[in-house]
Amino acid sequence: MPTVHDRTAESLLAFWADAGVDAMLLDAPVDRLTAPAPLPFRQPGKTTDPTPASPGAQGLVAAREAAATASTLEELAAAIAAFDGCPLKFEGARQAVFARGAPDAELMIIGEAPGAEEDQRGEPFVGRAGRLLDRMLAAAGLESRTFITNTVFWRPPGNRNPTPAEQLACSPFVERAIELVKPRMLMLAGGAAAKAVLKRNEGILSLRGRWLEWASSDGATVLPALPTLHPAFLLRQPAAKKKAWSDLLTLVERLDRPERRS
Ligand code: URA
């Protein structure tokens, strides 16, 4: 018969599981801010240099090459799944999580990283935060006009934030998704997404609600980008929903504004 202590422990574990925590602390600390260990990138037909001068740069080149070969979103999803250059792939993720939504969407939402439910189901934003995001998009009339992805495609262990190095390794795929979907604007959910995609250092509370610009790596494409609060933050701080709703209305207003023709 379970004691009151068992029930307390069970309820505490359920609370943490619900919050996405499913890993215990490691014995030794891990510095996730330094450059990743040599990437286990494998290119068919080429021998791997055992001492690459810059493994991060090598991984980025590989990601760019892999992303460039994709001429459809399906091919891009397959290229991501086959890509070995992001260390997150080897840190316990079950599968790659790429995207969901309209393939010709006017709006692309870029979140931070898949969580536990996303890892299980293979789609972004399908957990509690995703359900809140969907309700907000539906209320703003945007549900069928949106394509949703993340800055990285594998779940970070314990739901930690993705590191800048992990985001950099995945960035060519995010850029290729933008090229293929051709959205008119971007919405960046959360500080980790806004900083990585816009290459900014400010915190999300200073970035949110401001129109900024995203530029492709060759500078040929420039899109308006609006950072906003992450829906997971809104679940923890419901009072902040007002700010996120105001950001969404700012976005809808611009999306529905008639485009000026010159
Ligand atoms: N949070 C994100 O940033 N992305 C997801 O896909 C799920 C939760």
Give a description of the structure:
It is globular, with a radius of gyration of 19 Å. The relative contact order is 0.13. The protein is 42% helix and 11% strand. The protein is an alpha/beta fold and 262 residues long. The longest helix has 18 residues, at 164-181. It has one domain (55-255): Uracil-DNA Glycosylase, subunit E, CATH 3.40.470. The structure holds uracil.
Oligomer class: single chain
Biggest β-sheet strands, sense, barrel: 6 strands, mixed
Number of helices: 10
Radius of gyration: 19 Å
Order of helices and strands: HHHEEHHEHEHHEEHH
How much helix is in the residues? 40-55%
Briefly note the structural class of the backbone. alpha/beta
Query: Whole-number average pLDDT?
Result: 87
Low-confidence stretches: 14-21, 36-55
Ligand names: uracil
Summarize the structure.
The protein has a single domain (55-255), classed as Uracil-DNA Glycosylase, subunit E, CATH 3.40.470. The chain is built from 10 helices and 6 strands; from the N terminus they run H-H-H-E-E-H-H-E-H-E-H-H-E-E-H-H.
Topology:
Elements: H1 4-18, H2 55-68, H3 73-82, E1 100-101, E2 107-111, H4 116-121, H5 128-139, E3 146-150, H6 164-181, E4 185-189, H7 191-198, H8 204-207, E5 212-215, E6 222-228, H9 231-236, H10 241-256
Parallel strand pairs: 2-3, 2-4, 4-6
Antiparallel strand pairs: 1-3, 5-6
Helix pairs in contact: 2-6
Task: Give structural attributes.
single chain, 262 residues, alpha/beta, Uracil-DNA Glycosylase, subunit E, 10 helices, 42% helix, binds uracil
